[in-house]
Design brief:
This protein is mainly alpha-helical. Helix content is 71%, strand content 0%. The relative contact order is 0.06. The longest helix is centred in the N-terminal third of the chain and has 23 residues. The protein is elongated and about 80 Å long.
């Protein structure tokens, strides 16, 4: 991403006498004091103006003024301009490094942010914010086991145990280490039964936990958790997973009922439409199956499962040309490069 340079005129003012120089320095110091006060009070625009005035009149590399300018720009929503000033700091503080990493994340440069966070951890291995942010980046890059190890380190810190366990569980679940993920989820529930301090939205936690239980063949246990969670959070995604647990036990009509409830609550829930399409296909309700799989494609045109389902419907209906086209599309999507997953933790301080 390109950056926009600030057009500030840098003027070197040299006093003719010691008296004048001392007076100028005192004025500059006072100006930066006022800039810091404005920044601490949340008046970022005023702080930036004072810092840039100082840089223009005196020393364009003054670290204090540079730092105030960088922080003012970041806090006022200009990370691309803030990065110009953070990059000029030759002796950044830990707070500078954290703020710069946050700005780089906002700019969509997670690898650069990760490099800075790794440098923080080399100096301070137990920095909780660096551990959390780096773990979230590794998750987004599908480097799940690295993220799990960072979450485990975070969980060893007394005030961050639940947050670290949540990161660890999410990473292990995505890495398909479901036995270890279940152990981490169970530990979270032992520490925080009502999930009041767990950082994810509750429906997200229950969905991830249920998926690990289902992957381990523990459908009944998963459904018990989901039904209790639905009493508090009537989430369409949790309804879809209840259907999946019933399907896993061969209770197909009940599964279809739950998937219909899910899409009634959230018509954009693609997994429920896929389940409904498979049920209709299995029962040879081909027109209904076609409608349901097409709905899934409308929601996500790159869904391999939806195009594969359409290929099966067309084949069952005696339409080989359409079946071959959908099968080829599903194949091309399967062979396409995979992208990383989203950041699951908001990178706040």
């Amino acid at each position: 991403m390109s950056t926009h340079r600030l057009h500030a005129t840098l003027v070197a003012t040299f006093a003719a006498s010691v008296f004048l120089f001392t007076g100028c320095a005192g004025e500059s110091s006072g100006e930066l004091d006022r800039a810091q006060i404005a920044l601490d009070a949340g008046r970022s625009d005023e702080a930036l103006r004072l810092a840039l005035n100082h840089l223009a009149r005196t020393n364009a590399r003054d670290p204090r003024a540079t730092r105030i300018a960088a922080r003012s720009l970041l806090r006022s929503g200009h990370p691309e301009r803030a990065e110009i000033y953070y990059a000029r700091l030759t002796d950044p503080t830990p707070e500078d490094l954290h703020d710069r990493a946050l700005g780089l994340l906002q700019l969509g440069r997670p690898q650069d942010a990760a490099t800075i966070l790794e440098s923080i951890l080399r100096t301070e291995p137990n920095d909780p914010h660096a551990l959390q942010r780096l773990a979230a980046i590794r998750l987004s890059e599908s480097r799940h086991l690295e993220a799990a190890e960072l979450g485990e380190r975070l969980a060893r810190l007394s005030d961050f145990e639940i947050r670290g366990l949540t990161l660890q569980a999410s990473a292990l679940s995505q890495a398909r280490r479901h036995d270890a993920a279940i152990a981490a989820y169970d530990r979270i529930l032992a520490l925080d039964p009502r999930l009041e301090t767990m950082p994810l939205p509750r429906p997200r936690f229950w969905a991830d936990y249920a998926m690990s239980l289902l992957a381990f063949g523990r459908a009944t246990e998963a459904r018990e958790h989901l039904l209790r969670a639905l009493e508090r959070d009537p989430s369409a995604e949790l309804m879809e997973l209840v259907g999946l647990s019933l399907q896993q036990e061969g209770r197909i009509p009940e599964a279809e009922t739950w998937w219909l409830r899910a899409v009634e609550r959230d018509p954009s829930l693609i997994d429920a439409w896929l389940g409904l399409g498979r049920v209709a296909l299995q029962d040879r309700r081909l027109d209904l199956a076609l409608e349901r799989f097409r709905k899934a494609v409308e929601i996500e045109s790159s869904s391999i499962e939806a195009h594969h389902g359409l290929a099966q419907v067309h084949a069952a209906a005696g339409r080989p040309v359409e079946a071959a086209g959908e099968a080829a599309l599903a194949r091309s999507l399967r062979e396409a490069p995979k992208t990383g997953s989203r950041l699951i933790f908001t990178p706040t301080r």
